[in-house]
Batch of 4 targets.
Target 1
Amino acid sequence: MNEDIVKSIRFYAVRSVRSFKEIPTSVFDFYDLTFVLAGTLSYIVDGEKYILKKNDAIIIRPGQQKFRHKITEPVKYVSINFTVFDDSCMPQQTLMNNIVTENIYKLISLFPVEYRATSIRAQNYFQPPYYSFAKIKNILNLILLELIDIEKIGTNNVNALNIIQYIQSHVYEPITLSSVSRHVQLSKEYVSYIFKREIGKTVSDYITEAKMDQALEMLRNNNLSLLDISKNLGYNNYCYFSKCFKETFGHSPKQMQMTLKDN
């Protein structure tokens, strides 16, 4: 998949409002992605009603009919209008419940308050030069990649997703159930339960798989020794690292290294 998804950004805004008039039924030639950070928003898209609560998101596609109900209570949301190079790269869901993970929230927080493309910007609109299109495009691109990855995982459970994101971002460190539970501020018992229920495997198994996948990539793309690869992935005991690798791929790290060299 081409990781450069975003073609252009028409408009976005980070808004906190107490009330707002309804947006009448309309059809646009761009995507409309909205995250709700507090309160509730209600839409009708192609005749179907969607209610967004805190940490939910909605993607409305080009050509779809959109109607948004009047806002009568305080709500904070981020709304982004954009086009893409390839529609098939976009997430397939319309409503994504409880999708604002730690990673997505951090990315959303990088946005300035508002942006409008030069072609639709009002003459009195202030656009600081450091809010470059390239920065905003890259942030949105990362958000869309996060949404695509979440869709592939097959769960919208924010606790399970935060656990996965923690493991992936700390794959080069020793990771334990205790360190995971401390990070997500949940008990070890609940972490084990929710992860097994949502992902279908134990936290320990997922940690090992993530590290072994990275070990294989390092074997393919680096000239590091097997001992260095083991240490870089947080294993102080090479024999244990080798055992985990063989259980995952059916070959020892040395055997895999020789196979990759022959190919």
Target 2
Amino acid sequence: MSALSERAVAELNAIIAPYAAGEAEVVRAYFAQPHPPAEHVELVRRQMGREVFCIDWLDRAARLGPGLERTTERHAFVALLEQIADETRHYAALADVAESLLGRKLTPEEALEYKVHAVYDPERPLAEHYNPRLPEANAMIDLMRRHYDEHGEFAEAVRQLTEGGAGGSFQEASRLSGDPFRERFAAAMGRIASDELGHGVLKVRAFAESRVQSDADLARATRILREFMAQHLRVRNEIYGYPLSPERLAAIDRGEIEPWALPTPATTPA
């Protein structure tokens, strides 16, 4: 790697690591307090809503499929199908956890009540992205849209580095134990963690090599990334029912937290 690429990796990871630690802190703060089963169900359903939105990409896959090897690049098509499958699998695993708490099947309305887009899609009507029950998730859509309008595909490439909040919350949740809910939730979140790391933080090195060609590129990337990670933390806090105060979130923004040990390809869970 060039000296610029190496510096880019270091600077980008230096932004991601404290926010990943913040997302882990959200999980610890939630589980440090007692919660009735109904609150656990709400937490799980909010996370389900962030996973199930990918079903809206099925129409895109149907449009692209007939153009395979003509207008549709094969690897991009595979990546789209794999992400739809991954996110839907996450949703299904979490729905099983919710139903184990409820002792019954979720109704369709309960299962989909918190559906909200985790990615801005310029091909889809903006109103379809939002959920009025999730103001921080809606603010994330607005942020992604603004950066996409200003920076195009560069901003989308930066956003991909933030998928799963670098895995901090998922990895922390995967360590839970002590009662049947925690253990089922931990198993589901552990499966999600493996996928989200591949979607997000493990792309930093490739991003630095392919997208950062100047100091100006690096400055732009770090500015966008910091905004994305800050809002992603607030989305995570919303999913868990706001266990961190605004003051604590602001302290994390200032770096007042021990950075998370980010995974590398050699340490990624199987």
Target 3
Amino acid sequence: MCRNTTAITRVFLAGLLFLATIAILIPSVAAEADAPFTQRVSLGLSVLLIVTYGLGLLFELKTHRELFTGADHTEPDEEAWPLSLALITLAVVTVLVALVSEVFVESVQQAATALGLSPAFVGFIIVALVGGAAEMASALSAARKDRLDLSVGIALGSAVQIALFVAPVLVFLSYVIGPAPMDLQFWRGAVAMMLIAAMTASLVTNPGRSAWFLGVFLLIVYLIFAMTLYLLPPRI
């Protein structure tokens, strides 16, 4: 049961990530279109992505919850937190992370200008590494304990949440608090990297088994992206 559950979780998350990549790919490919078209398409895609995210949560947590129930990895002396305490802790940590992220982004922008780094390298590599440090630490800790299902769920789940929920919400908020409307049109090279990353994640996680060379494979793919973005001229 646990093996089947783990496989379903991997396929589910990888599918959502690939779907989000396709949605981001569309306005970026149609770069020749005028700005009003891009903004309308981005708004429509944002609605679809948020609806998909909500339906995914409904599918995972309610209607087909039994398919995603894995093995119990709770330690013998570990007590579960009350729901109210967990929600309060999550809210406080979220606010603190948002404040720290704001200070960090401003500092990174100044450092990037001084060092001549491209915004693409800063956004895709530096900010992503620091912003996802806590999630990466949790995923690595789970992997060290041979809890591959939890490790993969953390890694893919974080990416799915950003692509299906955070990005569309930012598009809507940009019309209220932003200096200019935001759209889902990105640099084509970045979209290609996202598509490759989604396909790589699906390729690596589908077998359900891991080995040290898979880690090397993932690191090489990541280093290829990092080297390309680092060598880009700062104007990109």
Target 4
Amino acid sequence: MPQSDILSVENLHKSYGKGNAKSVVVDNLNFSLRRGECFGLLGPNGAGKTTTLRLCLGLTAPDSGRIILAGQSIPANARQARLRVGVVPQADNLDPDFTVSENLLVFGRYFGIPDTVISARIPALLEFANLTAKKNAGIAELSGGMKRRLMLARALVNDPDLIFMDEPTTGLDPQARHMIWQRLKALVSQGKTILLTTHFMDEAERLCDRLAVIDHGKMIAEGSPRSLIARHIESEVVEVYGEGARIWGDNLGRHQSVRVEISGETVFCYTNDAQQLLTSLHMTSDVRFVHRPANLEDLFLKLTGREIRD
């Protein structure tokens, strides 16, 4: 593992069941995290993201492969490695019997940190999470956004080098999401490393220096958001909707060299030169349209498909 890598995953494999019922969840996965970057792990439901995080933390044993986390072999030395790691899980698991400050204090004790040290850290953690005014509040008094910010503050109580964040902004309103984004950017600027899973493609595009897209446990793309978009997607997208969209899209397929996808009542047109499309649309009365640059969501849908995953 290079000196700059805080996490290295090589040929990781995990399956469940036996015989015909055997299901491969993580299939020969390889990636690494450099210190001081935000790395995104993207994929549809059931792609293997959460299992990969559990394997990296030593909470699930792999069938084969090699994991080095914070200089420690996983799962053999997972306990030592986790001392240098913070975790923000998908679901809130704050203790409702304690106040905001007490949640931080009690959690810090799991790392063997003296109460005096934790107590000295709490004011800065509360300020970071914009929760100073709520330090004596009960968990039931907090909004969803406040709880997620407290989860983030709690993950920092041991001053970790690496933070695992599993869908940290799910269920939050736009204001709360933006606040979390600001806090995550601040952590990276301070030299922390973040491993992020998210279903919000705008979140990944804003935050991640690099990312990997996995599906059915396999790595299908890796790189910076902009480089992946440039590599896999045409530069411009025209979304067409309205009563005449499908008819217009069918005619387009016969006359234009444009990649077309239809989802519901919307026609998605991918092209490197949208001028002809736009001219045609301006002359069509029963459609509406949006012209925009290609983004990470376009990449994700092209690589993993538009079908719903459960």
